[in-house]
Write a structure and sequence with these properties.
The complex is a heterodimer.
Chain A lengths: L4 E11 L4 H7 L5 E12 L4 E5 L6 H9 L6 E6 L2 E2 H6 L2 H10 E4 L13 H11 L6 H14 L16 H13 L5 E5 L7 H18 L2 E6 L2 H7 L2 E6 L2 E7 H6 L4 H9 L38 H5 L5 E3 L2 E3 L2 H4 L4
Parallel strand pairs in A: 3-8, 3-9, 6-7, 7-8
Antiparallel strand pairs in A: 1-2, 1-4, 4-5, 9-10, 10-12, 11-12
Helix pairs in contact in A: 5-6, 5-7, 6-7, 7-8
Chain B lengths: L7 E12 L2 E13 L4 E5 L6 H8 L8 E9 L2 E2 L5 H10 L1 E4 L3 H4 L6 H12 L4 H14 L5 H4 L9 H12 L6 E5 L7 H18 L2 E6 L2 H7 L2 E6 L2 E7 H6 L4 H8 L39 H5 L5 E2 L4 E2 L2 H8 L3
Parallel strand pairs in B: 3-8, 3-9, 6-7, 7-8
Antiparallel strand pairs in B: 1-2, 1-4, 4-5, 9-10, 10-12, 11-12
Helix pairs in contact in B: 4-5, 5-7
The chains are: A alpha/beta, B alpha/beta.
């Protein structure tokens, strides 16, 4: 079986140059940010891939590229065998048909729901937009079903978003995303704005829905504990590149890339097991002028001359893909 | 932990917000102490009142909020009745404050050095050169590389983690004896978060400062604190040594909170969830505020409000433990 989502050498470059006149007068060069640079992965149907990394590593850009909110600068996203960028550029009918199959859930449930619409209209909008249901009564029934599927009451359809708490709003976002019966959900930090007890409600619902409907998730998060709970596979990103990609068990039990190790080390130890921690040094460099070679080398404890000169590519080691010279040479 | 004279004593603190519909009781009967060198964590979900507790202590309650009852004592001296000028002297000199967003705590128009030197000279009798040396020294202590050069830079030239260090340096400028840190690591990435936590711990250990660390992140609490107070709907529902609160929580809310955190070392098919949400201040349930969400609720919980009572290893405001203490179900 081929994977539902296949991403090949995906790249996104943003032009962040000053306006033309400033560039001419102040003799500034054009500036580009390589937000995503040569990322490849695939997600099998019914599975969850989580992308983790610190702010600015490009994980949200990958999410947006996958659902077509950005067009790729290079590389391709194939969804069920079709190149999404081409389909979305092509005929309206085919583009709509593709959009119906993939939906996105955003981080901030306070910003992603129209405050002047009733929940009924918010959840029903995709149904109307895609012309799935016309009959008012049928729409109402479907909305009630969708709300029930995320653990809310059918009567909530008559309320406005401000009448709900953050967790309930995020469940409304999920209900809306499910309206077109998508196969693939891209979730960009869906629980980061929520309190832990509410986060647990949302994560439990997401897992239940995945089991019931066979959904495929791309789950973006900076919280490794959450990722460990929801993911099947985990990709670690650093400055626009994938530095390690492995099944969940492997990445948490046996992280290979020094950056993955650093991230895991930095998680506060809630069980107070007295686990020895290596203090983390440094910060993510400015993406406008990324370091040469391996972009992690200025913070890496095992970096050598090769790391600062030559950019490592993903290689397979013990069932994991790692982009690290030290791992390749067997130094760590 | 040594039980020396507590530096900060909060006694039955009550904070109200009068509005045209009546008076909202935002904090009710909050009492705790912090000893020198001790880090007290205050944890809770949004709206629990943890930031408000911090704001009341540093005298920065947003009007119309006001301290309506109780006492706040710093080193035995009441500070809740001071006027604005006196409080400004205490703040900065004796209490340092660190807030979540470092950008809002720094003036974008002044260099970091100018802000530091101004703060130092406001509180300490130092001349310009000494103040500058102290500013550089503070930046070095908080782990900023090349402080001599960085001191001449503006806040926007610092990254998020570096800015938070500058804010901490500012808070420490006059060697305060109490530091109130409100979500100091929340806006930061995990790797930077660990560095800031280490800095706070060093501060308590080496300088003997008392630290009140307000956060929603149990992981940060576990790493940093000696004791922890768990807040819910404007009250402290459980308090005790951090190890006991984490490993044998006595209040059903704390138990739910701990169970809902995804663990790094065990696999659970489902997370424990607390159904419902924290009540709004306008509709705090009678009796125990947690009773509508509590899996072990019984009649007394709906009628009477529990005080903090000795439970297994901690203090918990829960009638389950009163029943145990009295030997009756």
């Amino acid at each position: 079986m081929t994977a539902l989502v296949q991403v090949q050498d995906l790249a996104k470059v943003f032009d962040v140059s000053a306006p033309w006149l400033n560039r001419v007068l102040e003799r500034q060069p054009r500036l580009f940010v390589h937000a995503v640079d040569g990322v490849s992965f695939s997600i099998e149907r019914g599975r969850t891939l989580a992308l983790v990394g610190e702010s600015g590593c490009g994980k949200s850009t990958v999410a947006r590229l996958l659902v077509g909110l950005h067009g790729p600068s290079a590389g391709s996203v194939r969804f069920d065998g079709q190149d999404t960028a081409e389909v979305l550029k092509g005929s309206q009918v085919q583009a709509l048909a593709l959009r119906r199959r993939m939906q996105m859930i955003f981080q901030d449930p306070y910003a992603s729901l129209n405050p002047r619409w009733r929940v009924r209209d918010i959840v029903a909008e995709p149904l109307r937009e895609h012309g799935l249901l016309q009959d008012v009564q049928a729409i109402d029934e479907r909305v009630a079903d969708l709300l029930r599927s995320v653990g809310m009451a059918a009567a909530d359809a008559q309320k406005f978003p401000h009448q709900f708490s953050g967790g309930q709003r995020q469940r409304i976002s999920i209900a809306r995303a499910l309206a077109t019966q998508p196969e693939f959900l891209v979730c960009d930090e869906p629980t980061s704005a929520l309190d832990v007890s509410v986060q647990a409600q949302v994560l439990n619902i997401m897992k239940d829905l995945q089991r019931e409907r066979g959904l495929t998730y791309l789950f973006i998060s900076h919280n490794l504990a959450v990722v460990r709970h929801v993911a099947d596979d985990v990709g670690v990103m650093y400055l626009g590149r994938l530095v390690e990609l492995a099944p969940k068990q492997r990445i948490f039990a046996q992280p290979r890339h020094p950056y993955t190790r650093m991230l895991l080390d930095a998680i506060p130890d809630i069980q107070m097991s007295g686990r020895a921690r290596t203090p983390v040094q440094g910060e993510v460099p400015n993406p406008l002028s990324p370091p040469t070679g391996c972009s992690f080398h200025p913070r890496c404890p095992v970096a050598n001359a090769r790391c600062s000169a030559e950019r490592p590519v993903l290689i397979v080691r013990d069932g994991a893909q790692v982009a690290c010279h030290a791992v390749e040479e067997g130094r760590i | 932990m040594t039980m020396s004279q507590p530096l900060l004593q909060v006694r039955n603190l009550r904070v109200e917000f009068p509005n045209r519909h009546g008076t909202l009781l935002a904090l009710d009967d909050i009492s705790f102490d912090i000893a020198p060198g001790e880090i007290l964590g205050v944890v809770g979900e949004s709206g629990a009142g943890k930031s408000l507790t911090g704001a009341a202590i540093i005298g920065l309650l947003e009007p119309p909020g006001r301290v309506a009852g109780g006492q706040i004592l710093l080193d035995g001296r009441r500070i809740d009745k001071l006027d604005a000028d006196q409080m400004r002297q205490v703040r900065g000199r004796q209490i340092g404050a660190v807030f979540q967003d470092p950008l809002t705590s720094l003036n974008p128009l002044y260099t970091v050095g100018r802000q530091l030197i101004e703060t130092i000279q406001t509180h300490l009798p130092l001349d310009a050169r000494q103040a500058r040396e102290r500013a550089i020294d503070l930046l070095r202590q908080t782990g900023i590389p090349a402080p001599e050069a960085r001191i001449a830079q503006y806040p926007h030239q610092f990254s998020g983690g570096m800015r938070q260090r500058v804010v901490i340096a500012l808070a420490l400028a006059a060697e305060p004896r109490l530091v109130v840190a409100d979500e100091p690591t929340t806006a930061l990435d995990v790797s930077i978060q660990a560095q800031i936590i280490a800095l706070l711990r060093r501060l308590a250990r080496d300088k003997g400062a008392a630290v009140m660390l307000i956060t929603h992140d149990m992981g940060v609490i576990a790493e940093t604190c000696d004791r922890v107070a768990v807040m819910y709907a404007g009250r402290i529902v459980e308090m005790g040594p951090v190890r006991d609160v984490i490993h044998q929580p006595a209040h059903p809310y704390t138990q739910g909170l701990m169970g809902s955190i995804p663990a790094m070392d065990e696999d659970r098919a489902r997370l424990l969830q607390i159904d419902g949400a924290m009540p709004r201040l306008t509709a705090i349930p009678s009796g125990c505020a947690f009773n509508p969400r509590c899996p072990r609720v019984f009649d007394r919980c709906r009628a009477e409000r529990p005080e903090l009572l000795p439970a297994t290893a901690t203090l918990a405001a829960c009638w389950l433990h009163a029943a145990m203490a009295e030997g009756a179900p």
